[in-house]
Amino acid sequence: MDLKEILLEDEVDKAIEDNLENILKSIPELRFIIGFETKRNEELWNRVLKAISISKKDFDVRLSLLLYKIDEIKGVDKEEITRNILSRLNYDENYINKINYLISNYNKPISKQQTLADMEVSFKLYEIQRCDRQ
Asked: In which domain, by residue range, is 12 found?
């Protein structure tokens, strides 16, 4: 299974766990969040899996959720590492910018101007926020 197929599975958390070694071959940076405990004493990887598991079946949203906590590890630039990962996975510049925007803004209020400028992206951003607040 490729990453898109995995992230679009109905039981996405199970699909991720079943294919974790393949995912880690493509995105080895995720190894750093597996076993990493947050300030709230929760494992970061479990938080990511939970957020993905309650998300709508949308590749952009689920991919963003897969990568959105990578900056919890000190000294990591989230936008740069996301750009490197998505470039390595052969995504084009426009798509990389879109996912970077979603990841960089998941914890910020969505303005009326943002919504009017791009309603689709605003809805994806809202979905990421909803899943993060679980």
From this structure: 3-132
Q: CB of 116 within 8 A of CB of 123?
A: no
Please state the domain count of the chain: 1
* Terminal C-alpha separation, the chain: 28
What is the rounded CA–CA span in Å between residue 14 and residue 68? 19
pTM summary value: 0.92
DSSP letter at 70 equals: G
Q: Output the six-digit token pair for 33.
A: 């969040």
Give the span between the Cα atoms of 86 and 91, in whole angstroms. Answer: 6
- Give backbone dihedrals phi and psi of 58, rounded to 5 degrees, phi first: -140, 120
Task: Write the CB contacts of 31 (distance below 8 Å, at least 6 apart in sequence).
Answer: 24
User: And the tokens for 26?
Assistant: 């493509």
| Continuous H helices in the chain | 3-7, 12-18, 20-26, 44-53, 59-67, 78-88, 93-105, 112-117, 119-132
Q: What is the pLDDT of residues 82-105, one digit of tens each?
A: 999 999 999 999 999 999 999 999
